[in-house]
Inverse folding.
């Protein structure tokens, strides 16, 4: 069988799956931000009626999948696979959601690159005929992430100015072999990149080189230019990471100025909502894509985007052991209509 | 495109990838066990020259991949993807190995089902033409797992009789679109099953129902009978979990008596090496397959096996929050030669 790889790390899909539905659920802070009107559910209570943040996050995933399915009158049993991940140890929120949803389940972990890692695998499995329909999920929760990665919220630690605010929410996509788009047409899978940054409160800087590496590889592999895209959007580089990535790409001759954005910057109004460097977390790219960007693509206000979710593969243990922060970025091209 | 699914959860591969190489690395206790002669590297020092168990485990993965490649004179750059996972928070050992190996990387998490989750995804990606060659990995380390999931080793806690011994080691497979076998011919992806067991020192009992569910589904989907297999082998149910699974399957009318085994039982001599209920961990299925079973298949001493790695999707946090243990099992059929 002919290999569908073009260039070094990119797959061109010949039967591009259609994203037939999405759904998003976010916390109060995200619901108060500039993308408010694009979210399906805005919670007033980030515990969502549960007795822990981890269980609340799990319920986000469950409800987002059910909501996305109900929009297109599908049932859980119509899904061939559930592919998803979160930031919690042992994927607690996704694993427990998978227990309720009862869909054959592939758990993945790429930190905040989970959204596009899931979409990449799902797109190839559908393109190749291994599934007709797949649900992908990615989620995070400010409070569960803070206590796991940093400090108990109760201790009221100050956050340095380079830090980002983990997005509370979950986004899901329903991919199908049939549908009217938007379509996933290309998949570029990242390698792990590490420029030696050790500051776990400066994830944007740690992740910027991986975003640059994957974007460059994607453009080289496909022959696309930045201006072929309406938007090239990273997952959660935040304000500082975005600046670094922009500078690195422009130094290499790519003109990114009109197209380059970051979901972590878009989701909050930084003047009013003071998050320091913007949003982060798996949910950053997941809810900005499944909410705002999906709607723009459906309405054909934009026609072609490169979604590049970025993950910092550190663990509290690796930081304590003096290691720097490895990072990875996975990119998918999403187009509102198919070209020849 | 026609869907390649047969039954409810199984894929039949029409261009079955060949497992062209494997490699294993294990700790001293595993090297002293009954499968000793099938391992490529037996360490005398489970720190492997590193200054932490987590870093040692990461080096296991790196060295296992390099060793498997060198056996077939391939380079890291010949690999289209690396797919793998471990038990550590944030996949620390796999993420850091991926940083060194520089292969486009999909991190996965299915707890001890990682070995067959990785092989399932890799097999479909190669079968569909998305890759020519993929390296899969799965690893675990007794000492890193004990301190993360249970107690610091220094505190010398007693282990209850239902507990299992996490296998120290890593196993890798190199899958290729071309080769002389053994071949992965079928993939059955599990759903999460939870029978309400809350004892984190009795993982075999928690995982048995997921193994039973996946094995039953596989047999129903394919029409195979247990006796069509030389061996149906679970990942790490251990002595108690194996008994429970055997009883559940026989109650439903499957005659498993001559074929049903467990990697966690095979890897240690329980009389002499007293592990209580046998081995566990991602490395249990990974090194027993990539060592012993692979060699038997290559030599055509056995011709068809069902490898069913089993994962307990608990986290220390979920246990503290009073949750029971969800579990999952992924099965792959591996055959020494292709039939018509």
């Amino acid at each position: 069988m002919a290999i569908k790889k073009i260039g070094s790390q990119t797959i061109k899909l010949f039967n591009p799956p259609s994203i037939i539905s999405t759904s998003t659920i976010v916390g109060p802070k995200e619901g108060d931000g500039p993308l408010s009107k694009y979210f399906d559910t805005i919670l007033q209570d980030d515990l969502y009626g549960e007795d822990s943040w981890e269980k609340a996050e799990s319920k986000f995933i469950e409800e987002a999948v059910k909501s996305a399915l109900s929009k297109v009158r599908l049932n859980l049993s119509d899904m061939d696979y559930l592919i998803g991940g979160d930031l919690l140890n042992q994927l607690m929120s996704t694993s427990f959601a998978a227990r309720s949803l009862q869909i054959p389940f592939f758990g993945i972990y790429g930190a905040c690159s989970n959204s596009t890692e899931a979409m990449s695998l799902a797109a190839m499995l559908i393109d190749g005929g291994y599934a007709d329909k797949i649900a992908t999920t990615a989620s995070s929760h400010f409070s569960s992430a803070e206590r796991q990665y940093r400090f108990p919220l109760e201790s009221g630690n100050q956050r340095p100015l380079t830090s980002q605010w983990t997005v509370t929410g979950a986004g899901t996509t329903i991919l199908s072999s049939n549908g009217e788009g938007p379509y996933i047409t290309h998949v570029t899978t990242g390698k792990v990149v590490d420029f030696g940054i050790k500051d776990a409160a400066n994830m944007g800087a740690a992740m910027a080189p991986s975003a640059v590496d994957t974007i460059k590889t994607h453009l080289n592999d496909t022959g696309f230019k930045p201006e072929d895209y309406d938007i090239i959007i990273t997952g959660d580089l935040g304000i500082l990471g975005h600046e670094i990535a922009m500078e690195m790409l422009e130094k290499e001759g790519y003109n990114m100025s009109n197209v380059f954005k970051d979901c972590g910057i878009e989701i909050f109004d930084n003047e009013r909502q003071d998050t320091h460097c913007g949003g982060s977390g798996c949910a950053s790219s997941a809810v900005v894509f499944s909410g705002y960007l999906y709607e723009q693509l459906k309405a054909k206000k934009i026609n072609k985007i490169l979604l590049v979710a970025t993950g910092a593969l550190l663990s509290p243990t690796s930081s304590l052991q003096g290691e720097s922060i490895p990072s990875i970025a996975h990119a998918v091209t999403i187009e509102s209509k198919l070209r020849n």
